[in-house]
Give the backbone structure.
Amino acid sequence: DAGVIQSPRHEVTEMGQEVTLRCKPISGHDYLFWYRQTMMRGLELLIYFNNNVPIDDSGMPEDRFSAKMPNASFSTLKIQPSEPRDSAVYFCASSSDRDEKLFFGSGTQLSVL
Amino acid sequence: DQQVKQNSPSLSVQEGRISILNCDYTNSMFDYFLWYKKYPAEGPTFLISISSIKDKNEDGRFTVFLNKSAKHLSLHIVPSQPGDSAVYFCAGDSNSGYALNFGKGTSLLVTP
């Protein structure tokens, strides 16, 4: 398996623009997680899905953030409108029900100017 | 509120010596702990874990110690190697959820 695949690797955009981050989890994994890494807060959980259903979105900062998982092999995290304080590395991770270990993608480095 | 705290942002150790990375947690419901290692421009990768029913788990050069009464765990790397230079994240997990709670990470530099 190729592991968790995220795209794009880097995204530079201007304040106010819509940003869409994409993730393909490991095949067969039931859980998908979106994390954000910043210097101030480290790795913080934004939202996670189980069998494509959002389970906990309490970490989503504001209504500007939304996440979807239309099927077992694809998820998106959307920020609309984006702001400079959204600049961070966004990680997607997946895991199976039988394993508490998370497998992370390489992340998307987002810069909002 | 940070439920997992790594109070040392960075650590520098000489090659061959022991590296000790510390982690404290506040959530008494955590029953499983994991350490992840992260290189620049890569995602975190799993390193070692420990269940709350144990106080020690060893895997090669890596050993994790858990002190439940103090709500403290530590990762020991012996001997340290330059390739161990990375950011190390501590994480806690509870039976009530499937999402890991991570600390802010400790950047380890192993110098030749």
